[in-house]
Specification:
The protein is α+β, with helices and mostly antiparallel strands and 346 residues long. The chain is globular and about 90 Å long.
Length: 346
């Protein structure tokens, strides 16, 4: 089961079946052997579908069958294994209907079940930006380790090593050897950058975080070329021989730090643009107006904004805008803007 993408959410937001959609967000705790999530699901389904009890006969039958189909999906299953979260969208239909499901290596903020004319997509968009996975390149001048990071764990993907032979030539021509060695290391790291880019693109990953000496990271990054692959320096240290368990701790910290830095830069820029009266919007009313006019390039709002999130997300998806749900650490910065800002196209 794949992690959701913003394009998945964009396509889903246009879906409007005749009798509506049941949107399901589930959280799984591997340490909970009681299966409390199952009780939450059943109770959530009952609450969400209760208003349809007064609907016309055809809709009542469709709702009843959909509830049965949804609960049967998990009937008899033991505690769910990872991923830790799941998002599902089930068409209300008496005869089957469409379904869309995604897994997530991080749980949604809350477990919910809703029935509406269209899917509830705001929590899905938040999942899109939370741990969709990235590449991790651990660098040294003569060795590169590539790993995939997702769900707080590292998975080795590939490893390369520079092979150097010298013999007596090194002793006779030390200066030339050093020059050639540096050239070979530079070429090696650049080639590794190119290969990493290809491998990560095959896995639909758009970001690589490098750990290693800064100069090595620069040569490595040059190999990525002008692709859309986003490259960041996680730590300017030689970690090539660090055990995976210890490396994981550093990667988790770096991912959180880089995400927070990107979010703060985005929010600060949008607030500055809004205050300058040019290409920015701040506050719920102003941002919704800009979304309605199709002027928003990048929407950002606080994770705990509540009910307005759905209208904001739908407006952004409909207008082809990027969406970032920022963490709690920026709540104070966003508070004067009611928790929402946007960069505008014009």
């Amino acid at each position: 089961m794949t992690h959701p993408t913003l394009e998945d959410a964009r396509e889903l937001s246009d879906w409007r079946p005749p009798f509506g959609v049941v949107s399901v967000y589930l959280r799984f705790d591997p340490g909970d052997r009681s299966g409390a999530w199952r009780t939450e699901l059943r109770n959530g389904v009952e609450r969400a579908l209760e208003p349809a009890a007064e609907a016309e006969h055809a809709q009542r039958m469709a709702v009843r069958e959909t509830a049965r189909r949804l609960l049967d999906r998990y009937d008899g299953k033991e505690l769910r294994p990872p991923p830790l979260g799941e998002a599902g969208f089930v068409e209300v239909s008496e005869n089957g209907g469409r379904e869309h499901w995604w897994g997530s290596s991080v749980p949604p903020r809350a477990a919910t079940v809703t029935l509406a004319e269209q899917p509830t997509v705001a929590p899905l968009v938040e999942l899109c930006g939370r741990d969709g996975g990235c590449g991790v390149a651990v660098l040294s001048a003569e060795r590169v380790r590539l790993l995939r990071f997702a769900g707080g764990t590292l998975e080795p993907l590939q490893e390369w090593e520079l092979s150097i032979t010298s013999g007596d030539w090194r002793e006779r021509e030390a200066d030339q050897y050093d020059e050639r060695l540096e050239h070979n290391r530079k070429r090696f790291l650049g080639e590794c950058g190119r290969r990493v880019c290809e491998l990560l693109q095959e896995q639909s990953l758009g970001e690589v975080i490098a750990f290693g000496p800064k100069v090595d990271a620069e040569w490595f990054r040059a190999g990525l070329g002008s692709t859309a692959m986003q490259a960041e320096l996680g730590e300017d240290s030689d970690l090539i021989s660090l055990p995976t368990a210890q490396l994981t701790e550093k990667v988790v910290a770096a991912v959180a730090r880089l995400a927070a830095e990107r979010d703060r830069e985005l929010v600060t820029r949008a607030l500055g643009e809004a205050q300058g009266g040019s290409r920015g919007a701040a506050g719920l009313r102003e941002t919704l107006e800009a979304l309605g006019e199709g002027r928003v390039e990048h929407l950002a709002f606080a994770a705990g904004i509540g009910d307005p999130a759905e209208a904001l997300v739908r407006g952004a998806l409909g207008g082809g805008a990027e969406v970032t749900v920022v963490g709690d650490g920026l709540a104070d910065l966003l508070a004067p803007a009611e928790g929402v800002v946007a960069l505008l196209r014009y």
